[in-house]
Design brief:
The complex is a heterodimer of chains A (about 250) and B (about 240). With about 250 residues, chain A is an alpha+beta fold. Chain A contains 6 helices and 10 strands. In chain A, the strands form 2 sheets. A 5-stranded antiparallel β-sheet of chain A has the order 8-1-2-9-10. Chain A has a 5-stranded antiparallel β-sheet with strand order 3-4-5-6-7. With about 240 residues, chain B is α+β, with helices and mostly antiparallel strands. Chain B is built from 6 helices and 9 strands; from the N terminus they run αββββααββββααβα. The longest helix of chain B has 19 residues. The chains are: A alpha+beta (about 250), B alpha+beta (about 240). Chains A and B meet through helix 3 and strand 7 of A and helix 1 and helix 2 of B. Chain B: It comes from Anaeramoeba flamelloides.
């Protein structure tokens, strides 16, 4: 079968006649096949939420993580090929460690983001390696600078966001996110809002199996450390979402 | 597609007419970004203006930048594929720092441009690599030569300019600048900035708001590379608007 890229889409080193690199665009499609992840930059921190589809009842809850810590103060949420995401996180951890050894200070998020962006970029330059098929959201909270959220796509473009969504439902999620007043929201409220977007807007109960919510945050409450959102809070958020549904009916 | 006869898929293959299609496609990729950059060199200043396109209101605007500091007095504006930018900036910085360490003085803009041009050419000759889809505009105040404005393209071709336009509206911008520079080429700082910004506005047929463009200015009085703040840009835009009436 031939698409628009046929012939120009075999290597990341080949430009198409209109100047596109199809291998990198196909890597984006790999991300779009995966379930959604959301990151919100609130008043007092950053919250991540991932919609994890439960593929089998035999799977232990809480395993198959999509959210990772780099150092204690930075969190990374992935969408796309999980294994690719883990590789980049491994590199991020190495960078953080090297920075700390060299400067005796924890790595600032914008430095880490730039280094990861360059790392991801290198894999789009040669014909003997393939681009990463994953997008990452990187978040951190600093007492002075406040919360920061960056997103790195498979083509290595890294931009700062107030709110971001990656994966299958990213369009619908982004629409919902732009309705929120993020600068006035606390992290606790964000947990609820993210749960609402993932459960109601993004997750299609008729098409897909059950989902598990994986949420983590870096905020004032956790004293700038990246931690999983307490299970109790997630359960409360899910209850709240169900309550909202009943109200609307 | 078949008219090129399959000679356009690999960097190291010449077409029967002697063209390297992949390099030409890299130029197309620059235009794909939809951004235009204009640079003007005056008698004691250089001003470079580029469009700032923030596609989503969820994006933090300060993280979208195409202007980078290479050394304290040399700046670089990149137009084209955003993903290739950081690596080129890192290379430029590395080359500049290595030079300064070795020779004890700041790398001349012309030499930096030559070095990056040679590195870009290498990427057009190896099959396992691709060229960076970027138009690299280097500018700064040189100790010896004064204001400098250079551009390097994916083919490795680099040359100095009195004024340049690159990106999507390259042809229109270049024509517009040629007319103005013919009339007067030794411009004051004020004239340099106004020519750069007003040409960009004319070519794109829009009146900019301060957050839609990035302006960088280096002068012999103030050779330190900096990107102007929104307020400063607003002042200049207002002045230009007044002058046109």
């Amino acid at each position: 079968m031939s698409g628009i890229g046929t012939g120009y889409d075999l290597y990341p080193t080949t430009f198409s006649p209109d100047g596109r690199i199809f291998q990198v665009e196909y890597a984006h499609k790999a991300v779009e096949n995966s379930s959604t992840a959301i990151g919100l930059c609130c008043k007092d921190g950053v919250v991540f939420g991932v919609e994890k589809i439960i593929l089998s009842k035999m799977l232990v809850e809480g395993t198959n993580r999509r959210v990772f810590s780099v150092g204690e103060h930075i969190g990374i949420a992935t969408a796309g090929l999980t294994a690719d995401g883990r590789r980049i996180v491994q590199n991020a951890r190495q960078e953080a460690k090297n920075y700390e050894n060299f400067t005796s200070d924890i790595i600032p998020i914008h430095v880490l983001t730039e280094r990861l962006s360059i790392y991801v970029q290198v894999f789009t330059l040669y014909n003997y390696i393939r681009p990463f098929g994953c997008s990452l959201m990187i978040g951190s909270y600093d007492e002075e600078k406040g919360p920061s959220l960056y997103c790195i796509e498979p083509d290595s473009v890294a931009l700062g966001f107030y709110g971001c969504a990656i994966g299958k439902g990213k369009q619908e999620a982004k629409t919902e996110i732009s309705k929120l007043k993020l600068s006035e929201m606390t992290c606790k409220d964000a947990v609820k809002e993210i749960a609402k977007i993932l459960i109601k807007t993004v997750h299609d109960e008729t098409k897909e199996k059950e989902m598990e919510l994986e949420m983590s945050w870096i905020c004032k409450e956790t004293k700038g450390k990246h931690k999983l959102v307490p299970k109790k809070l997630i359960e409360e958020a899910v209850e709240w979402v169900k309550g909202q549904e009943n109200e609307e009916d | 597609m078949s008219s090129t006869g399959g000679y356009d898929r690999h960097i190291t293959i010449f077409s029967p007419e002697g063209r390297l299609y992949q390099v030409e496609y890299a130029f197309k990729a620059i235009r794909l970004a939809g951004v235009t950059t204009i640079g003007v060199r005056g008698s004691d200043s250089v001003c470079v203006v580029t469009q700032k396109k923030v596609t989503d209101k969820l994006i933090v605007p300060s993280t979208v930048t195409s202007m980078f500091r290479i050394t304290n007095t040399i700046g670089c504006c990149l137009t084209g594929r955003r993903s290739d930018m950081l690596l080129i900036v890192q290379r430029l910085r590395h080359v500049a720092q290595e030079f300064e360490f070795k020779y004890g003085f700041v790398i001349p803009v012309s030499y930096l441009s030559q070095r990056i041009g040679d590195l870009s050419q290498l990427r057009t000759q190896y099959a396992f690599q691709r060229p960076a889809a970027l138009s690299i505009v280097l500018f700064g105040i040189d100790e010896e030569y004064g204001p400098q404005l250079f551009r390097c393209d994916p083919a490795g071709y680099q040359v100095g300019y009195k004024a340049l336009c690159t990106g999507q509206k390259e042809q229109e911008g270049t024509n517009s600048l040629e007319k103005k520079i013919k009339q007067k080429s030794d411009l004051t700082t004020k004239e340099t900035i106004e020519l750069a910004i007003s040409t960009l506005q004319r070519v794109l047929n829009t009146d900019f708001k301060p957050d839609e463009i990035e302006v960088s200015l280096v002068t012999t009085e103030n050779p330190k590379f900096k990107v102007l703040q929104d307020l400063e840009v607003e002042e200049i835009l207002n002045e230009i608007a007044e002058n046109e009436f």
